[in-house]
Specification:
This protein is of the alpha/beta class and 368 residues long. The protein is 19% helix and 24% strand. The protein is built from seven helices and 18 strands. A hairpin with a 6-residue loop joins strand 2 and strand 3.
Length: 368
């Protein structure tokens, strides 16, 4: 199919629907039989096809049961190290997509390199416990495909125990999809796009929540940083801390699903640093090869500036850095030195924090 049409994203369920109108640009999109979601290759918007095949959400009182681990595509293996500190870092440039306007150049890959340096040099994460997936890897098991990202999330949390500190970072393209099972306050599921999103589909927040939030046991903690538009609640966590337009301070909002579906952990704590975006950049910005993403830059820089940060002071510093424009990159270390500019390719205006539980953000220290 050429790049002026759309490609069906196979989620299973639903019937053949013929032509479907893109809900974003009204283009006519051919829907393959059995597809539930289709992505427009003109505006990159995602449209649901029909409403059948809805999932049954876990009952709040039912115990969480981990999914059976899947073999890694290509027969390779992820790191065998099971250190108490583990991380999965994903950066996707989408260079293989046909339309030049979809490329993010090397910004997301630079984000991953900077995050790895921060984790290993500042917080003592072992090198062999940091798994990197990009679309520039030569090893097929390290490519940021949908299957490999799923496997990486599984590797991150599998066998987690009290005292584990886990990190998930994604830099790339995010999308919104109309919710079809009533578990979203705003009526939309959020999703991240793997490098093969047009053929395999995005990864919805419901799946991300089930993969890396639900398995967290008591005493384990997960920090996620997502540098993508439409990423505000992409882990589907029940509580969101954002800037109040009335008070001007950070305030918790209850985002628990209206259906009563449980989106918390199995006793551990999950936290997501993300941001609100207007979604108007249409992926047309082409950062230079020497750039880093604004969200990733503000997080790393705030951590460097706040050696004894609380979550509240970290959010405030991140917001200040983002509002200053961040045109010039001044990250420390050998990774940051060659990166000269900051590009807001995710369109994020304000940082925010979501979590599996509410807490005093001005008293709780930030510790990885």
């Amino acid at each position: 199919m050429d790049h002026f049409g759309g490609r069906a994203l196979g989620f299973g369920g639903g019937g053949g629907c013929g032509a479907v109108r893109c809900r974003h640009c009204s283009a006519s999109l051919p829907a393959m039989p059995g597809a539930r979601v289709i992505q427009c290759a003109q505006c990159y918007g995602v449209t649901r096809v029909g409403g059948r095949g809805r999932r049954r959400h876990p009952n709040p009182v039912e115990p969480w049961r981990p999914a059976v681990p899947m073999p890694v595509a290509g027969g390779g293996f992820f790191p065998g190290s099971r250190g108490k500190k583990r991380a999965v870092l994903i950066g996707i440039t989408y260079a293989s997509m046909r339309r030049r306007g979809s490329q993010l150049m090397r910004g997301p890959v630079n984000d991953v390199k900077c995050m790895r340096y921060l984790l290993c040099e500042r917080f003592g994460f072992p090198n062999d416990c940091v798994l990197i997936l990009t679309d520039e890897e030569k090893d097929p098991c390290r490519l940021a495909t949908k299957e490999n990202i799923r496997m990486a999330m599984n590797w991150l949390v599998q066998g987690c125990s009290s005292g584990d500190s886990l990190v998930f970072h994604f830099s790339g393209i995010g999308v919104q999809v109309p919710d079809d099972d009533g578990d979203e306050v705003d009526g939309y599921d959020e999703a991240i796009c793997p490098m093969d999103s047009f053929s395999q589909g995005p990864i919805l927040d419901d799946e991300i929540n089930e993969a890396i939030v639900r398995p967290l046991v008591h005493g384990a903690k997960l920090h996620a940083v997502v540098d993508a538009e439409h990423s505000s609640t992409v882990l589907d966590l029940p509580f969101l801390c954002c800037l109040s337009s009335r008070s001007g301070g950070w305030q918790w909002e209850d985002h628990r699903p209206p259906t009563g579906a449980y989106k918390g952990s199995s006793g551990g704590q999950a936290m997501l640093f993300s941001g609100c975006s207007d979604g108007n950049n249409k992926h047309s910005l082409l950062p230079e090869a020497s750039t880093v993403g604004a969200m990733t830059h503000s997080f790393i820089k705030a951590v460097e500036c706040e050696p004894r940060a609380t979550y509240g002071s970290l959010l405030t510093t991140m917001r200040s850095i983002m509002r200053d424009g961040g045109v010039t990159c001044n990250l420390q270390g050998p990774i940051g030195a060659p990166i000269r500019k900051v590009a807001n390719f995710s369109g994020i205006q304000e940082p925010n924090l979501s979590c599996s539980e509410m807490f005093d953000i001005y008293r709780k220290p930030f510790v990885l």
